[in-house]
Amino acid sequence: QLRLVESGGGLVQPGGSLRLSCTASGGSLDHYTIAWFRQAPGKEREAISAIHDFDGSTYYLNSVKGRFTISRDNAKNTGYLQMNNLKSEDTAVYFCSVAYNLEVLSVTLVTPDQWGDYWGQGTRVFVSS
Fold this sequence. Notes:
Blueprint: E1 3-7, E2 10-12, E3 18-25, E4 32-39, E5 46-51, E6 58-60, E7 68-73, E8 78-83, E9 92-100, H1 112-115, E10 118-119, E11 123-127
């Protein structure tokens, strides 16, 4: 049973950067696709990025392309989301989730609760001046 813990959220000014981490315990992230989701106040949870384990393929929501970078370090059992040039509309609770060996585009085909095998508790990101 994997346990995922996100960290790295906080308050940042527009244009600033944050790096979110998703650290797993209780098992290995090997063979799991890692995805990041976010849920803004009053909105549904949406998938913003995903990374496959075997081929390193990635997915990005259009609104974060060129600003966010997903990565993983299996040796550290951790996934990352580097977020640059943050905007007020990036304010949300960010969640990581993992699913066994799913293609990255699968995050766009099902609802979030249908996708992940395991979820973290979320970390808040607040972008404001």
